[in-house]
Each structure stands twice: as structure tokens, then as C-alpha cells.
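To: structure desk
From: M.T.
Subject: fold request, one chain
Message: Could you run this one when you get a chance? Sequence is below, nothing fancy, just the single chain.
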Amino acid sequence: MTYIVVLTWNGWNDTEECLRTLLPAAGGGIRILLVDNGSADGTPEKVRRSFPEVEVIENGKNLGFPAGNNVGIREALVRGAEFVILLNNDTAVDKEFARELIDAAAPDKKVGMATSKIYFYDRPDVIWFAGGDFSPWTGRSRHAGFGKVDRGQYDNVGQIGRPCACSLLVTRAFLEDVGLMSEDLFLYGEEIDWAIRARKKGYKCVLAPRSKVRHKGAASTGGGQSGNYLYYSVRNMLRVLNTHARIGFYPLNALRNLLVVTSFAVSVFTLKVELGNGLRNVWHGARDYWKGVSGPRRRERNAVDRA
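Reply: Done. C-alpha cells follow.
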């Protein structure tokens, strides 16, 4: 049994299109479970009305990306799932995307994660993600193939350094051994945290090149062009690296922390974000890490409390 977990937080138009492409991929032991993180646009009711075959769980408030997905993962495991696929709601999928993910993971018990080859939504032959890695020194992550026309050049990549939770299969064995997503991150950095934990347990992450997904790109958060991206990326990468890859020699670890903050500060100059706002969010992310802040940042926390 395989469950596809689609997490939503508003964005009904994206969700509707996603589910219309997803339904043909279901059936034959593959089921869809939509988890709603307190949408204010009536998404749960609209899904029940338009897609009665899709099961809906309502969290009632915005739990964040990891905790929201974990609700769906736990439910899938209770129902006997051997595989759980996490899928962003701002995607459109090929009919065989789920079966290709399963085929990539099933033969090898040490494959804990398999991720789709992901394309730009409006340029279906241009790659958005075909594998990736990250730097333990700067905290920055790289998407292999980003912006390149797909000519099959990444079809034999196999094992990769980090997955992409936009379309990600995880196995039951992996979840029971490594655990679920780290909920204190709230947004961004979850895949890298998972990848490091997986590696420590001896699990592999692979690219499933025939599993194809088109992605609109962080429709609900603004993605890499937003202040939230900078805030959470800085705070969470400092947390992940100092939790799982801490350098024993304190001055060297402090230097690494400084490099993480500096690399994101420099990136502000290349993003479509106002300079002062971008640098302010980088600083706030670093400050809140050192203060031990986790979960939603203050303004999101207040919004959640009012939900």
C-alpha cells in the first residue's frame, strides 16, 4: 500500500490542478490523502465536493511543513503503508510518477528516499531538480540540472546527496528507523536534516528519473525570493548543522556558523528581494537560532494562535 500525502495551506487553484493530474496516478494500491494546514479559502470543503475519492484530514491551524506532513505520514503508517509519497500542492504530475518512485526504491532495502525529476511548471522540458547536494560549510544547497533542458543527462545519476520534498517517497522501514521530519524547523531545511539523519543510519537517497513532476515553485511561501525563505533558511541550517554536523573545535565551528550567515547575506544581492529587508531577515534568522527559537517565527506564531 502506498499513500500520497498532499499538504495544503490555502492555494485552492493550485490544489485543484494538482489533484486533477494526480487522480490518474492513484488506484491499484495507491491512495491520496490530503492534509490541510488551516486553510482560510475553504480548501477542505472544496476538495470533498470536487474530489470525493480523496481523503481529507484537517489540522485546524498552520502546523508548518514538517508537522503538517507528519500528520499524513503517521496516518498512512497506521493504515499499513509501505511507502509514503510527499507531494507539494503546486505541482502537476505524470500518470506513472508514483509507480516510478516505488520502482526506484523497492529493490534495495537501503534506499530510504526516492525523489522525482522535477521540471519548471511552465517549461516542461527544463529541469528544476535532478538531484542535489549541500555544503556543510556554507549551508547552501544546489539543485543539479537547474535551468537545463532535459536531454537525459541525469538519467543515470542514481544516489544523490539530498532529496527534494516537492515530490519525495519515503519507505516504512526508513521512517521507523530514522524517524519523521523534524517539526521544530517549521519551514525549509527539512530535506537536508532528513538526508543527514538517513546517511548516519546507512540509508541512501536516489533520483527516480522517470518519475516526472512539474513544479510552480513555493506558491504559498514566495520561495527563494521572500524574506521568510532567508529567515528560515539561515535559522534552520544553523540548527541542522550544529545538531548533526557540529565541529568539535569551537573556533572552527564558530567560523562555519559565520560562513553560513555570510553566504545567505551575500545571496540577498542576487535575489528579487529588497536589500534591507533581505539582510534584516538573514540577521533575524541568525539571532533566533542563537536565542534557541524554533517553530514558526513570531509573526507566523501569532497568526497560528489566532486560527
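Reply (cont.): The chain has two domains: 2-215, 223-306. Let me know if you need anything else for the meeting.
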